[in-house]
Amino acid sequence: MKQPNILVTGTPGVGKSYMCKRLAEQLGFKWQKVSDIVSEHGFVEEYDEEFECPVLDEDRLLDYLEPLMQEGGNVVEYHSSEFFPQRWFDVIYVLRCGTSLLYERLQARGYNERKVKSNMECEIFQIPLDEAKDSYRKEIIYELQSDKDSDLEDNLKQVCEWLESWRSAQEKKS
């Protein structure tokens, strides 16, 4: 049976990497860390000096990911979701974080004030959640809190329960 593809999205600093690392280890899925793929393969159109980050070449990235996504068994991590094809994902998890904690995490990363402010606004105005809701079926989107270690454990448990349910449904179909 082909494994599902999972998207983990959210504002930078909410814990996507940590969750994806644990999911990949626990489930045996392939971790597709989009930022690393972009850097490794040069899928960049330009560099944004203001926000100190590369501007993604979405077409080249999607062309690269397409055959991997067709195989299934991927956990994809990225702070944005709207440009990924709907057909790629069986479930989407949007991680959220309290703003005071998020501010501390972004400061610890050494982000400049403008970048911190922009990311804080993204979290406050729930941009990643709204992007997901505008781009995918509502019934496959789950919002998860990611403030404490216990939240991570609860979130991992929820994903594992979802996977069991998904596998059961697939078996009934075949």
Can you give me a brief rundown of this structure?
The chain has 174 residues and is an alpha/beta fold. The protein is built from seven helices and seven strands.
Account of the 3D structure:
The chain is α/β, with parallel strands linked by helices and 174 residues long. It has one domain (6-70, 78-162): Rossmann fold. It has seven helices and seven strands. The strands form two sheets. The chain has a five-stranded parallel sheet with strand order 2-5-1-6-7, sandwiched between helices. The protein has a two-stranded antiparallel ribbon with strand order 3-4. Helix 1 (16-27) packs across helix 7 (149-173) and helix 4 packs antiparallel against helix 5 (113-124). The longest helix is centred in the last third of the chain and has 25 residues, at 149-173. It is globular. The N and C termini lie close together (10 Å).
Which secondary structure elements does this structure contain, and how are they paired or packed?
Elements: E1 6-9, H1 16-27, E2 30-33, H2 34-41, E3 44-48, E4 53-56, H3 58-71, E5 74-77, E6 91-96, H4 99-108, H5 113-124, H6 127-135, E7 141-145, H7 149-173
Parallel strand pairs: 1-5, 1-6, 2-5, 6-7
Antiparallel strand pairs: 3-4
Helix pairs in contact: 1-7, 4-5
Which characteristics define this entry?
single chain; 174 residues; alpha/beta; Rossmann fold; five-stranded parallel β-sheet; two-stranded antiparallel ribbon; 7 helices; 7 strands; 52% helix
